[in-house]
Amino acid sequence: MKRHLLIIDPQEDFCNPRSGALFVAGAEADISRIATLVQRVELAAIHVTLDTHHVLDIAHPLWWRDADGNPPAPFTIIDSLVHWHAANPAHQARSVAYVAALAHNGRYPLCIWPPHCLIGSAGHAIAPELFAALCAWETRTGRSVDYVRKGENPFTEHYSAIAADVPDPEDSATLPNEVLLTALCQADEILVCGEAGSHCVASTVRDLVSQGIPAQKLTLLTDGFSPVPGFTHLQDAFLSDLKAAGARLTTTEEVK
User: What's the total number of domains in the chain?
Assistant: First the structure.
């Protein structure tokens, strides 16, 4: 059986309780369990996604201002532009269109996050315990981990590893990732874990199914992801929906 492991955004800014810019409570323990899994089970392939941002990003405070010129606080939800405008007037029309597109497509409303996973920063790096396990897997198997970056386009959020929340037809990196989809189609089973279960894991898995990956191929490792604090209901809904669709829910320890 060809078993693939898909690890979503196992990065320091999500997983380090001391220095993580957007630490997800429980992520450090998730990472430890994932590292043990990598060392313990036979895997045909490992795919690791990397959230990758600029400081100037539509979901970061620098992008927006209120009428007094103040940026929004982290975790502000912007679902209308009554109180907010783009700090750069050249971005205003596109920002208005983006918020409207999110309302139309039914994905997450625009949430302003603390700047995180910035290109070149320590927070962008994979959690050290897991990175060591991945390097050991490459040494042991002679195969390379498939690293997949997402989120570099500052005009759209990119929770899913498959496609941006609002794809930009002029930027292929925001369109469905056919290379990753093709690779995952070759798997008999896809183990899914990473951070956060409420957002990037949930969005990726939902997109996998919408792009034709059977839910029955998916094994969701419930002790391998945690929700962003305050968004537990989104993770619960995701797990309920995928279980009903035929995905398997289990733990890292139960994988043989």
Answer: 2
Task: Identify whether 255 is part of a domain.
Answer: no
Q: What is the Cα–Cα distance from 218 to 246, expressed in whole angstroms? A: 8
pTM of the model: 0.94
Cα 231 to Cα 114: distance, rounded to the nearest angstrom: 16
CA distance 110 to 98: 9
pLDDT of residue 80: 86
Within a domain: 69: yes
Structural domain boundaries, residue 33 = 3-54+116-250
Entry field: residues in the chain:
256
| Domain containing residue 9: CATH number | 3.40.50.850
The partner residues of 126 in beta bridges, in order of sequence, read 11
Average pLDDT over residues 155-179: 95
127 and 213 fall within a common domain = yes
CA distance 41 to 204: 23
Closest CA to 165 of 178, 155, 180, 198: 155
> Is residue 101 domain-resident?
yes
Strands of the sheet with 218-221, listed across from one edge? 146-150, 45-51, 3-8, 189-194, 218-221, 248-250
Lowest-pLDDT range of 5-14, 20-29, 75-84? 75-84
Residue range 180-208, pLDDT digits in tens: 999 999 999 999 999 999 999 999 999 99
**Both 246 and 126 in a single domain?**
yes
* Block residue for tokens 């990065």: 11
How many angstroms separate the Cα of 188 from the Cα of each of 68, 176, 185, 205, 216? 55, 21, 8, 16, 10
